[in-house]
């Protein structure tokens, strides 16, 4: 683990991505404690204010402090995106590993079903799921996790096919172990590295997808300070007070870039060909 961290920090993308993610998680963890105002506190006489000494990032149409809303909105945006990606990765990893273990016709059927699902754009698939379940942040999380699962399953299967041929898997089969034991205890732990790398990169897409669902009114609901919802509320006032859209949009971009850079650096750090 220490060697992986050293190799990660040696690369520019790895070090920059790590710094951005540390900052994002620090804001998500401590934002509510350092926010100068309540995110729902109105200052009617200070509506549409630009950045100033009193309001560092300005205020919105209700006079709410944008800095406080950005700090507190980091938690639902970042944490929900991570949890949604984790959900999709777990589902996809189990399905992909099981498909590789079963092989034959079962593998073919599972993969063709996943191919059919992957033909639907992930955002559209998430929209369909949220529409069926109802518009709220929890259902948006479930929808993103389900939408990401087929892609993770295919990636996991490609690695698990090689693991399936290893001697320790054949030994478990010879001992008469159950399929669930072999998949969860023998194969899945040995395909975890590429899953982690892919999941890290997909968090960036989860952040943007979650923001998109909130922007469309299918994710977080008012008065939440989720960043995508903040962008949606600010679009009517873009020319009057552009700060309302700039700050949450910039926050989404920084977090997405951070996860992308971190994923690229982690991929290089775990690649045996680039260790030297």
Give the tags.
276 residues; mainly alpha; 0% strand
Q: Could you characterize what this model shows?
A:
The protein is mainly α. It has a single domain (13-27, 68-274), classed as MetI-like fold (Orthogonal Bundle). Helix content is 72%, strand content 0%. It has helices spanning 2-10, 12-34, 66-102, 104-118, 122-133, 137-163, 167-174, 179-187, 192-215, 227-234, 243-270. α9 (192-215) packs parallel to α10 and α10 (227-234) runs antiparallel to α11 (243-270). The protein is elongated.
Please state the CA-atom Rg, rounded to the nearest Å. 22 Å
As residue ranges, the low-confidence spans are: none
The total tally of domains equals 1
Full CATH superfamily name: MetI-like
Portion of residues within helices: over 70%
Number of continuous helical runs: 11
Given this structure, which CATH class is correct?
Mainly Alpha
> From the 3D coordinates, which CATH architecture would you assign?
Orthogonal Bundle
How many extended strands? 0
- Strand fraction: under 5%
**Do you know the CATH topology?**
MetI-like fold
Give a quick precis of the structure.
By secondary structure, the protein is mainly α.
Mind sketching the topology for me?
Elements: H1 2-10, H2 12-34, H3 66-102, H4 104-118, H5 122-133, H6 137-163, H7 167-174, H8 179-187, H9 192-215, H10 227-234, H11 243-270
Helix pairs in contact: 1-11, 2-3, 2-11, 3-4, 3-6, 3-8, 3-9, 3-11, 4-6, 5-6, 6-9, 7-8, 9-10, 9-11, 10-11
């Amino acid at each position: 683990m220490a060697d992986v961290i050293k190799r990660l920090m040696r690369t520019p993308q790895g070090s920059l991505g790590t710094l951005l993610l540390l900052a994002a998680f620090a804001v998500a963890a401590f934002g509510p404690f350092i926010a100068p105002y309540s995110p729902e506190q109105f200052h009617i006489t200070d509506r549409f204010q630009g950045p100033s000494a009193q309001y560092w990032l300005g205020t919105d149409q209700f006079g709410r402090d944008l800095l406080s809303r950005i700090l507190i909105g980091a938690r639902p945006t970042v944490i929900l995106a991570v949890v949604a990606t984790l959900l999709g990765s777990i589902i996809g990893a189990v399905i992909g590993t099981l498909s590789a273990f079963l092989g034959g016709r079962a593998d073919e059927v599972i993969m063709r079903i996943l191919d059919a699902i992957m033909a639907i754009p992930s955002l559209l698939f998430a929209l369909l799921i949220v529409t069926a379940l109802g518009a709220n942040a929890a259902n948006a999380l479930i929808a993103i996790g389900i939408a990401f699962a087929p892609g993770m399953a295919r990636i996991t299967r490609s690695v698990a096919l090689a693991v399936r041929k290893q001697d320790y898997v054949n030994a478990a089969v010879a001992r008469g172990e159950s399929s669930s034991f072999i998949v969860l205890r023998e194969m899945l732990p040995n395909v975890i590295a590429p899953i982690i790398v892919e999941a890290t990169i997909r968090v960036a897409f989860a952040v943007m997808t979650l923001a998109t669902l909130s922007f469309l009114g299918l994710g977080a609901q008012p008065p939440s300070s989720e960043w995508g919802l903040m962008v949606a509320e600010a679009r009517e006032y873009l020319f009057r007070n552009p700060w309302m859209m700039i700050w949450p949009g910039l926050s989404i971009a920084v977090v997405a870039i951070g996860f992308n850079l971190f994923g690229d650096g982690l991929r290089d750090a775990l690649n045996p060909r680039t260790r030297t």
